[in-house]
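Course assignment 3, question 2. Fill in each field.
Student: A.L.
Task: Predict the tertiary structure for the chain below.
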Amino acid sequence: MVKIFQIILSAFVVVGIFGCGGVKEVKELVGLGGKDRTVYNGPKYAPTNQVAVAFQPAQVPKSCRVFAEVMVQLPSKLTGKDIEGAILNEAGKRGADQVLIGQSRQGDDKGTRFLYYGPDKEYLCSEQCGGWKFGFDVWENQGEWVNVGYKEWGKTEVRYDAPLVMQLAMLHCR
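Answer field:
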């Protein structure tokens, strides 16, 4: 009898939360919220302190393999130098020899977060890079396009007033 009461009570709680727009919270509560993308589960490489940067797939050596497909969320008020530091620090911790920077858009301010999407298996950048076939759950709901390229990268005088979302591939080239 107690079990039935607990099940009915649980059902009312779930219905109450669903009615309040807490679908995401309920899914997480019952284990259906999906993967925690902030947790890196890819290959383990020794940390590096020299990470090269590319903005076009053609700039990546043919031997480089993509081992992490990442959406980077960055807060507002960062400079080009701040963005460079955050990305190269994270890439170095993961053992990247190079990063390929994709497109950027205005995003939601959730602080600095690296959301890892894969790949399931490393692949040669020379064969597949640039398709950016991951992260649509984050990407599709973002704002205007923002340029973060050669002219902005690493510059202290370039400041972004809006939070950003950026596509990124981490590469291992040895």
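Instructor remarks: Residues 52-172 form one domain. The chain is about 30% helix and 25% strand.
Grade: pending
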